[in-house]
Write a structure and sequence with these properties.
The chain is mainly alpha-helical. It has 3 domains: 12-106, Serine Threonine Protein Phosphatase 5, Tetratricopeptide repeat, CATH 1.25.40; 127-222, Alpha Horseshoe (Serine Threonine Protein Phosphatase 5, Tetratricopeptide repeat); 242-306, Alpha Horseshoe (Serine Threonine Protein Phosphatase 5, Tetratricopeptide repeat), CATH 1.25.40.10. Helix content is 72%, strand content 0%. The chain is built from 17 helices and no strands. Helix 4 (63-75) packs parallel to helix 6 and helix 16 runs antiparallel to helix 17. The longest helix has 17 residues, at 42-58. The protein is elongated, with a radius of gyration of 22 Å.
């Protein structure tokens, strides 16, 4: 899932440095922004990494500066240098959570998932008795990445436990919902997988991966119309609006009671400039799902909002 940045490129030289240096003392912020929101371009990364290197040379015992530099190295693809800086930070401060989290992100790129899990698990343990952790989305990110790593290793029970912990912090985390569905799918628990994929789409209705999961799980339980619907929605999320509309029309013709098809048709028609057809489709959907925010927003864009 591609996260949208809320920082412009013009802001990055100043704000990126401020976030990564001044706030890295909080333990998590550099990882969280770099991983899920902040993706500055290569030239900015090079300039800031050189600046940070000079700061580290002047103050080599500052673990926060080392972690900030490591984050820039990692985003520049210099994984070995990132790991080196993070390990140095842990030598200075063995409980520096920012360093642990960075290593949890870096080591999988070197094929060392066990080491990544080791460091991320340490972060979890350090926050076990921290009441603020129950509402901290940065801890949510740690649990999410643990879930991804366990899933990759085929340790599905551990993955499910980590992802449920992530959702205990942020119920509306579509990424963790999708990954939990993927775990259930690997366990051949397709009804549970379908539920999680739908929950992910509830919070992000144009998220492509849950539709892919639904296509597989609906086919596995023998519900071919819904599998066809999911495949058509994949096309919609890819911007193939005409193809999506054609396939969704076919699904609706065969299964007129499948109300969710009308949401996809409404969005496809909107994108194709078929305003009147979009309004009809979306209103048909809202008769069954009257509280759906995405459909009401679409009607608003079409000048039909309440």
């Amino acid at each position: 899932m591609q996260k949208k940045s809320f920082l412009s490129k013009a802001d990055l030289p100043l704000l990126g440095l401020a976030l990564l240096v001044l706030l890295s003392a909080a333990g998590f912020i550099a990882f969280y922004y770099a991983d899920r929101y902040l993706h500055p371009d290569q030239k900015v990364l090079e300039r800031q990494s050189k600046h940070l290197e000079g700061m580290v040379q002047k103050n080599p015992q500052n673990p926060d500066l080392r972690v900030a530099t490591a984050n820039y190295y990692l985003d520049s693809g210099k994984v070995d240098l990132a790991i080196e800086q993070a390990e140095e930070a842990l030598t200075i401060d063995p409980k520096h959570q920012g360093a642990m989290i960075l290593l949890g992100k870096a080591y999988p790129t070197k094929g060392k998932s066990d080491l990544a899990i080791h460091y991320l698990t340490q972060v979890v343990e350090l926050n076990r008795d921290n009441p603020m952790a129950k509402a901290d989305k940065r801890i949510n990110a740690v649990y999410y990445h643990l879930g991804v790593l366990y899933h990759t290793q085929g340790k599905y029970s551990e993955a499910a436990e980590a992802l449920k912990a992530a959702l205990n912090i942020d119920y509306a985390d579509a990424d963790s919902r999708y990954m939990l569905g993927a775990v259930f799918q690997k366990q051949n628990n397709h009804p549970a997988a379908i539920n999680e994929f739908h929950q992910a789409l509830r919070f992000d209705p144009m998220y492509s991966e849950p539709y892919r999961g639904l296509a597989v799980s609906y086919a596995a339980v023998g519900d071919q119309p819904k599998a066809a619907y999911a495949r058509a929605m994949i096309l919609l999320t890819q911007g193939k609006y005409s193809d999506a509309a054609t396939q969704l029309e076919g699904v609706l013709q065969q299964s007129p009671d499948l109300a969710q098809v009308n949401f996809g048709l409404g969005i496809a028609y909107e994108k194709l400039g078929k305003r009147d057809q979009a309004i009809v489709a979306l209103n048909s959907f809202l008769k069954i799902y009257p509280n759906d925010i995405a459909a009401r927003q679409a009607l608003g864009r079409l000048g039909q909002g309440n």
